[in-house]
Recover the amino acids of this structure.
């Protein structure tokens, strides 16, 4: 018989955000999505804005984000989240409206919607998960796939002559007058998780203050797509992703 | 009463706005009206035309297969629309730039040189209201009072200072139109 | 008279803008394209955000416009967009998502000739696109075909009413002729927009305007990964379409009671054909006009009834023969059915339609 241990409130060191549902997440073990979901839920709860927050979920691995965070959600067509969010925000100017998108969604098929929402200075936040690969469809090349990186559609490694170069949409968006806060974070260490949460909070505050468009890029792992253990994926991220996608605030309007 | 009219010329001659003044005048006179323009890039310097129908009954088709009257302001339009006037109908044309004059004998033909007359007055913008005055002299489908109201309705408020000049141009047009056939 | 009716002379496209404001529309999202750009131009001129609070936004593409409509509609708002044929093609994806997520909205298509870039002149070549799909998957739009500037006005109200009644996108299928033409129109008095409280009480079961503590979260989506559940969604939508087909058929029959031959035409073609009927009757030919006002649901039954006693139908459309397929389905072989069309922006005149009727049916 297992011993029943009573958990006392005074001994509690960690609690699940009340906005995280009890649904079992479909994400692979080691995936960054669950961590970022948790941070978003915590920020919304701490800001006390559940009743005026609308999330826009993407097409990609996070398509079911609406099953995990207990707020109103609109599931957008692939790439269109920033257009959907723009309209919701225009009609509900006091609301918190954010999108949650992957690298294919935000920076391939949805580039136009993303760039123009940012150029218009929509007071929304885009959370941008960059794991350099298409997870849901089975590990194909993303616009952010690093040179030489092997994917299902670059089986011999990404060759710029054949596949072009990866690009940093966050750095591009800095030049748009409508953007207020552009940052690149990661969640591969506890310290980075805490920094990422602060960045998300700052982006949400920026949107609620009506200062313009915010992008929180999260350089993330896809250990299934990368075909690595979670630990190896974290190490690979540090050694390969971060040199190309360096962390930190890129633009911060006060 | 039913009057089916086409006004045709170059873009920039005020073809569409002449039609608009007439349509508004028809509304003032409690007629049913339709105003069907040609539209698109051809409007910018190319040919433009508008079909205006005034009727005391509900108008079925806004697309006409023949016209009671044609107001023609350039050679291309004369070539295109002369044949589409019903027998016994009326053709009014501005003679400026016309080298091949109308040849039909089964319609009433009137000429007006509003290009020259409006230039004489130093205001080529009065060209289309002058033509309109000529038309109304020949085909008095709406009263002068209603034309004045229609003119005002069709212009934005900032252009109302132009009303007296345009009213004069209408009267002048009625004086200078002459019957050819 | 208690109140003077407000009679205006306006283009069909301009009227769409005025009607949107007056019927309490919450938002318009669009992208310029000939021949319907006057819709957004008029809205921008009228500045409704200063009066009713209506949002008007020029998007970077039709793709973005329709997805803005999707987002705004998801929050329970009355929203619309307008475009012309190539732009509607770009919207096809979004329209399918809106239908799949069962959201109400209004889409105006001021048709031009195609395929491809085609022409900017009027056409009715998007009948299939509007009535038979356009986007992917099993869905229907409620399709209204205005034949006058007044109906452009009236169908904005009707379109929103039906869209909300059935939680389904509605489309006004106009064309360049109706959009560009000016006619007299009586504008409706200004109605107020729905308040947030009204939206919450009416649409709180599905709309996503922020989750209050006293209800479960709402999710607007067309996604369902379990086949059993997805099929159930499809069947539920199918039942809705049957209901629409039963209850919402609208048409006008002109001179059909004693007709030997019936013209079937919608929109600007119906206007032209109404003159054809007058011409034919003046010649002693008993010709009628059946004008579908709803293209989906299509007036199958009235045409089937007429088929029992007339000598033939001529489907008159500015296309290569699209609605004629529905006329044939309705007639089901009981009477001859022919098609007469012009394409490429060419428009038939009433006498050309009469000549076609004589050649294709009366002499045959």
């Amino acid at each position: 018989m297992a011993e029943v241990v009573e958990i006392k409130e005074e001994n509690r060191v960690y609690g699940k955000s009340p906005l995280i549902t009890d649904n079992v997440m479909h994400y692979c073990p080691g995936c960054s999505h669950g961590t970022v979901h948790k941070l978003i839920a915590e920020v919304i709860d701490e800001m006390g804005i559940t009743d005026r927050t609308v999330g826009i979920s993407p097409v990609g691995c996070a398509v079911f984000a609406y099953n995990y965070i207990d707020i109103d959600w609109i599931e957008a067509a692939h790439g269109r989240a920033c257009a959907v969010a723009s309209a919701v925000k225009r009609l509900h100017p006091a609301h918190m409206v954010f999108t949650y998108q992957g690298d294919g969604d935000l920076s391939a098929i949805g580039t136009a919607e993303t760039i123009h929402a940012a150029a218009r200075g929509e007071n929304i936040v885009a959370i941008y998960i960059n794991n350099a690969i298409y997870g849901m469809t089975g590990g194909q090349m993303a616009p952010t796939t690093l040179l030489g990186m092997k994917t299902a559609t670059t089986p011999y490694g990404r060759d710029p002559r054949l596949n072009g170069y990866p690009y940093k949409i966050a750095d591009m968006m800095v030049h748009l007058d409508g953007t207020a806060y552009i940052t690149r974070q990661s969640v591969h260490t506890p310290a980075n998780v805490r920094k990422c949460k602060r960045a998300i909070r700052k982006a949400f505050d920026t949107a609620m203050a009506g200062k313009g468009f915010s992008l929180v890029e999260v350089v993330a792992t896809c250990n299934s797509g990368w075909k690595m253990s979670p630990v190896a994926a974290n190490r690979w991220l540090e050694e390969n992703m971060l040199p190309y996608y360096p962390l930190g605030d890129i633009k911060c309007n006060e | 009463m039913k009057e089916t009219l086409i006004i045709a010329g170059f873009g920039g001659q005020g073809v569409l706005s002449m039609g608009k003044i007439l349509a508004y005048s028809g509304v003032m006179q409690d007629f049913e009206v339709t105003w069907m323009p040609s539209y698109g890039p051809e409007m910018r310097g190319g040919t433009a035309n508008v079909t205006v129908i005034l009727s005391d009954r509900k108008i079925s088709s806004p697309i006409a297969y023949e016209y009671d009257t044609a107001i023609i302001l350039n050679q291309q339009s004369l070539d295109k629309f002369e044949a589409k006037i019903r027998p016994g109908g009326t053709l009014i044309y501005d003679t400026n730039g016309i080298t091949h004059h109308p040849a039909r004998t089964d319609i009433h033909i009137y000429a007006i040189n509003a290009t020259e007359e409006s230039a004489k007055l130093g205001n080529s913008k009065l060209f289309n209201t002058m033509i309109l005055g000529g038309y109304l002299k020949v085909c008095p489908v709406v009263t002068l009072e209603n034309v004045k109201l229609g003119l005002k309705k069709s212009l934005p408020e900032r252009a109302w200072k132009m009303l007296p000049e345009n009213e004069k141009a209408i009267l002048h047009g009625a004086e200078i139109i002459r019957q050819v056939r | 008279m208690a109140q003077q009716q407000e009679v205006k002379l306006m283009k069909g496209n301009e009227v769409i803008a005025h009607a949107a404001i007056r019927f309490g529309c919450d938002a318009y999202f669009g992208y310029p394209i000939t021949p319907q750009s006057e819709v957004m131009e008029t809205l921008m001129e009228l500045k409704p955000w200063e009066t009713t609070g209506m949002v008007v936004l020029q998007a970077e593409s039709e793709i973005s416009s329709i997805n803005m409509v999707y987002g705004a509609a998801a929050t329970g708002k009355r929203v619309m967009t307008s475009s012309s044929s190539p732009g509607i093609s770009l919207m096809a994806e979004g329209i399918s998502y809106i239908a799949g997520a069962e959201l109400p909205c209004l889409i105006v298509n001021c048709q031009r000739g195609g395929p491809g870039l085609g022409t900017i002149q009027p056409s009715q070549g998007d009948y299939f696109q509007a009535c038979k799909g356009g986007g992917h998957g099993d869905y229907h739009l409620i399709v209204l075909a205005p034949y006058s500037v007044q109906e452009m006005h009236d169908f904005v109200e009707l379109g929103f009413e039906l869209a909300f009644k059935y939680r389904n996108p509605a489309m006004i299928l106009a064309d360049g002729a109706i959009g560009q033409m000016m006619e007299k129109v009586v504008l409706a008095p200004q109605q107020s927009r729905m308040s947030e409280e009204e939206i919450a009480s009416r649409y709180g079961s599905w709309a996503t305007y922020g989750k209050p503590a006293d209800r479960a979260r709402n999710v607007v989506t067309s996604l369902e990964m379990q086949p059993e559940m997805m099929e159930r969604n499809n069947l539920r939508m199918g039942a809705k379409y049957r209901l629409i087909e039963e209850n919402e058929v609208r048409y006008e029959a002109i001179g059909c009671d004693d007709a030997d031959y019936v013209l079937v035409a919608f929109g600007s073609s119906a206007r032209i054909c109404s003159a054809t009927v007058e011409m034919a009757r003046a010649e002693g030919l008993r010709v009628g006009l059946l004008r579908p006002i709803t293209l989906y649901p299509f007036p199958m039954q009235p045409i089937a009834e007429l088929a029992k006693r007339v000598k033939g139908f001529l489907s008159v459309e500015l296309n290569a023969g699209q609605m004629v397929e529905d006329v044939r389905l309705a007639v089901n072989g009981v009477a001859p059915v022919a098609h007469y069309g012009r394409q490429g922006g060419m428009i038939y005149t009433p006498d050309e339609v009469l000549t076609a009727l004589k050649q294709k049916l009366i002499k045959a």
About this structure: Chains B and A do not touch (no CB pair under 8 Å). The domain at 2-179 of chain B is CATH 3.40.920.10 (Pyruvate-ferredoxin Oxidoreductase; domain 3). The longest strand of chain B covers residues 85-94.
